[in-house]
Q: What sequence folds into this?
């Protein structure tokens, strides 16, 4: 299970980095941009992710992942007002997640984890969040790309560059 946990942590770190690379490509005002009234800004998505992480990963081995103190609906309101607040919330959520994952011991793999009173294995609880967070990081990246337009710097393989990327990767040394 150690190999699985190491892999999960690596994936979480990757998605965290993708969002942070997006934050770096948009100006402060753009963090609060809304496509329309039904959409979410980058800041709202960050609030939601941070709220989810704090709820899911605080005492995750001993209490339900949907904490009484969480106000999920408020996560989709403009509470964050600047980049510094956004990054503070962002890092608080991720710190909670990584601290929780790094606290998992050998005996914990057999424990039942509850989220909204639904029983999960520890692996399933981790996978649930490993599916949820990239979904929202993808939204952050998409919004960032819309905002940055032609100034966007690809976070993976740029359009039209797959051949050269693969050629470099498979070059014999």
A:
């Amino acid at each position: 299970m150690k190999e699985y946990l190491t892999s999960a942590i690596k994936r979480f770190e990757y998605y965290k980095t993708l969002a942070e690379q997006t934050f770096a490509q948009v100006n402060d005002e753009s963090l609060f941009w809304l496509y329309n009234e039904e959409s979410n800004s980058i800041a709202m998505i960050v609030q939601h992710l941070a709220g989810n992480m704090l709820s899911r990963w605080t005492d995750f081995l001993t209490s339900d992942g949907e904490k009484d103190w969480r106000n999920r609906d408020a996560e989709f309101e403009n509470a964050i007002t600047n980049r510094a607040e956004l990054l503070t919330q962002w890092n608080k959520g991720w710190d909670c997640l990584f601290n929780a994952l790094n606290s998992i011991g050998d005996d914990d793999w057999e424990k039942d984890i509850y989220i909204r009173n639904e029983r999960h294995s520890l692996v399933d609880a981790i996978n649930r969040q490993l599916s949820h967070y990239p979904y929202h990081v993808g939204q952050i990246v998409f919004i960032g790309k819309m905002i940055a337009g032609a100034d966007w710097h690809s976070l993976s393989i740029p359009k039209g560059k797959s051949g050269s990327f693969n050629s470099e990767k498979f070059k014999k040394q």
In short: The domain at 2-169 is CATH 1.20.120.450 (Four Helix Bundle (Hemerythrin (Met), subunit A)). The chain has a mean pLDDT of 96.
